[in-house]
Amino acid sequence: MTRHQKPYGVRRTTLTLLTALGTLAGGALAGAAPAGAATWTGVAAGVTYRQYDLSAAAGVTHAHVLSVDLTNTHVRLGLLYPGAVAANATVSAMAGGQKAVAGVNGDFFNISEAQHPGVTATGASVGPAIANGAVLKGAVPDAQRFGPELPPGTDTEAVVGVDTTGRARVDRLSLGGTVTVFGRRLTLGGLNQYALPENSIGAFTSAWGRVSRKRAVCGTDTSRAAACSTGTYEVTVRRGRVVSTSATPGAGAIAAGTTVLVGREAGAARLKRLKVGERVSVRYGLNSASSAAYRFALGGYPVLSGGRALSGLDTRVSAVRTAVGIGNGGKRVFLFTLDGGAAYRKGLTIAEVAAALKSLGATEGFSLDGGGSTTLVARPSGSTRVTVRNHPSGGTERAVANGIGVFTQ
Known about the structure:
The chain is mostly beta strands.
């Protein structure tokens, strides 16, 4: 299924980022190359790494970049994830477990639930996700996302990924699905999401993991902090038939071939009509705005399109960032991170990130989770294990929902 949409609006943003030539006062970070070093070094076939200083509005920051040549048939990009949607792991652990040679952290995620006491934070990502061509999840409602304010005209359906032709793209993936009961098709409102739209029905599969599904009925379409719904119902479907029902969302692993349907408000009222033994059919997929089919994709938000910064990018808040740049018609990918060490922690604004990606040669740019999540790993020459190349701002790696891995063969 495919849905065509208008491309994100853009306007030209001019910003000069200067490469620093000398060592910062106080010296370079321990373990880092001298400030100003800008030589690309090999990581693997088609993969190189570079680190360098950037002067920006908040001061000098330090960038770490992986350049990936997708014209090289021995290299590919893929989704790093812990094996479940509702789970977290460090980038180095995911890269090591999946035998990636390099990688960066990915999408924003459900990191906390202080606004809903007693509700477990799921750790699940905000946007859609595809791994090895398989759909893992859909996007939560815009108001339920974690992360900075979205640029005008963008939403949680935005993704970056690589299509089945081997081309990297920035795109949008919307959930398309139905629940058929009593011969009537109902629209599926969510797939393995930590937040469902009001009055909807969401599906949870074995890809979700063991975490409670309670968070899915908390918040509203306009407020992440709104109370959890009291009108809920859950139905478990196995081999096309209802096998159990519950008035509240449950927890625990979901067996392969089993789908748990969670309804809230009007969606719950519809599910309450179902009895054990009755037939239910659930179908779903992700529709791309470009009609492309994806090998992998994950969420975030676009910052650069057609070589121009998107309209309305933030120019005030500087922070440690992770981003992806795409050049050479989708055949060159730049995985861009900033250093979180104390000397460089002020970072870049989102507008400055777009300019930095453009200066590398990118025509398309996409922002991922930043701050304490920002991590870049790569294998040192001759090693079989990745090491963290930047300094995470929290002092150690943060466990995150997913990331982008670089794989070779």
